[in-house]
Amino acid sequence: MRPMLDDIELPQVQEIRTLERRALAEHKPPGMTGSRLQDLGRHPLHLLVGGVKSGPDAQAFVETLNDRFHAGKPVSFIADIVADAELETVLIDDLRIQEIAGKPQRYAYVLTLREYREPVAPAAGAALDTGILDEARKLMDDLVNGLDIGLAFASGLERFVDPLSELLTRLRNARGG
Description:
Elements: E1 4-5, E2 8-9, E3 13-19, E4 22-27, E5 36-42, E6 46-54, H1 58-71, E7 75-78, E8 89-99, E9 106-115, H2 131-156, H3 161-175
Antiparallel strand pairs: 1-2, 1-7, 3-6, 4-5, 6-9, 7-8, 8-9
């Protein structure tokens, strides 16, 4: 069985490399020597698939791969070599295409694929409190009302300008200059 990317059969695959990594968290308990490791599962699987396509339909093949790459959407992937990894859906992270010189209608391709994991929906109880917006509006209204009082306060200080100016002048004269 040839590897398939969505509905595209990948011809003349010459190389498939996989990269799998575990997610480990190290915990150092206080007062103890050493540490404990917690296995958090694995990171998304990465694949490198390289091959060659030749013939009259090679140009159409390359264009189809390029369209899927630029769409940026998850696609299905099937290959015997990664069947045990339970890999079903991938994102195309990178696509490299090279026309092979001296060989008409022949292209080398390299796909970098990353396992796609459906994002987890937030829990029903974890939704945002809808009253937050109302509370924020009330706080803003209170702030605006406070600013109105501030204007009245500033205009109420005008009556102290002349007495304080005279006091300042007398203090300067008493200091000598």
